[in-house]
């Protein structure tokens, strides 16, 4: 975030669900954190730290605090699925890259991603409504560019 | 989250921006954490822990890891504004209560809140698209019910 004159009150929020993932991958904390780190680096954001919780009997939540906001995953091994979001303030980062890194690491059978532009258009001073920009529904193969 | 048979792969994600807040409130970590705690309790969710970062020269990010997913704020004292989101899996919690607690504590001049239903409709097995349900634009007075 680093709110200063260079950082506008606006950003892009990616919401997504990935389906059809092998269950053991969704309980592998190191794999999940490594994929998030790789994606955060590719997005141009800066990772300040992870808060990670492994649930019993299964499932992992990882919250990444970014200088530009946050990224999270919540995994459901019994469903072969996870929830993902990544929000980056300003216009410098590409949070969809984080989703791409997860897709590369986890090879889901299907992914739904939505991009929401948030905040104020400081060019005009007018608040932007929280509007949907795009909805992706991809039947993914090994590697898919989602944006 | 606690993914088990009682927890469906679905949930509600609230995205919001609050505007017109006194700058010093947006740098007050204790006030912000207390408001989030109060809201999380009211929502019916369980807080596992906060990850908090105070930025220089100003601004705070707080990520709350919930048993049911997460809640976050990113404040911009120089803009008198903050970004908020709260995601709760399952159908037991009301994440909008967290936004209401922030509104009560910070008394913004305006709030934009959006509710997004996410995940799979396990009744039919069909994935739900990430659809917008409602957009609120409230000129808030002391206390506003946003949902």
Structure overview:
Two copies of one chain form a homodimer. By secondary structure, chain A is of the alpha+beta class. Chain A is built from two helices and eight strands; from the N terminus they run E-H-E-E-E-E-H-E-E-E. In chain A, a hairpin with a 5-residue loop joins strand 2 (47-54) and strand 3. In chain A, helix 1 (29-43) packs antiparallel against helix 2. Chain A is globular, with a radius of gyration of 15 Å. The interface between A and B is large, with 52 and 52 residues.
Write the SSE topology.
The structure is a homodimer of 147-residue chains.
Chain A: E1 10-19, H1 29-43, E2 47-54, E3 60-66, E4 69-76, E5 81-89, H2 96-106, E6 110-121, E7 126-127, E8 131-139
Antiparallel strand pairs in A: 1-5, 1-6, 2-3, 3-4, 4-5, 6-7, 6-8
Helix pairs in contact in A: 1-2
Largest interface: A-B, 52 and 52 residues
Rough shape of chain A?
globular
- Overall pLDDT of chain A, averaged? 83
Task: Please count the beta strands of chain A (DSSP E, at least 2 residues each).
Answer: 8
Helix tally of chain A? 2
**Strand residue content of chain A:** 35-45%
Relative helix content of chain A:
10-25%
Oligomerization: homodimer
Rg for CA atoms of chain A = 15 Å
Structural class of chain A: alpha+beta
H/E element sequence of chain A: EHEEEEHEEE
Unreliable stretches of chain A, pLDDT < 50, 5 or more residues? 1-5, 122-147
Task: Give the distance, in angstroms, between the N- and C-terminal Cα atoms of chain A.
Answer: 23 Å
Q: Main β-sheet of chain A: number of strands, strand sense, barrel status?
A: 8 strands, antiparallel
């Amino acid at each position: 975030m680093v709110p200063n004159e260079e950082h506008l009150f606006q950003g892009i929020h990616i919401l997504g669900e990935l389906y059809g993932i092998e269950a053991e991958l969704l309980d592998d904390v190191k794999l999940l954190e490594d994929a998030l780190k790789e994606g955060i680096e590719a997005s141009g954001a800066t990772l300040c730290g992870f808060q990670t919780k492994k649930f019993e009997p299964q499932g992992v939540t990882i919250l990444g605090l970014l200088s530009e906001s946050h990224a999270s995953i919540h995994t459901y091994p019994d469903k072969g699925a996870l929830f993902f979001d990544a929000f980056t303030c300003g216009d410098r980062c590409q949070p969809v890259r984080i989703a791409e890194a997860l897709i590369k690491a986890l090879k889901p059978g299907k992914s739904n991603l939505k991009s929401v532009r948030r905040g104020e258009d400081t060019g005009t001073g007018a608040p932007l409504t929280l509007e949907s920009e795009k909805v992706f529904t991809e039947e993914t193969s090994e590697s898919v560019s989602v944006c």
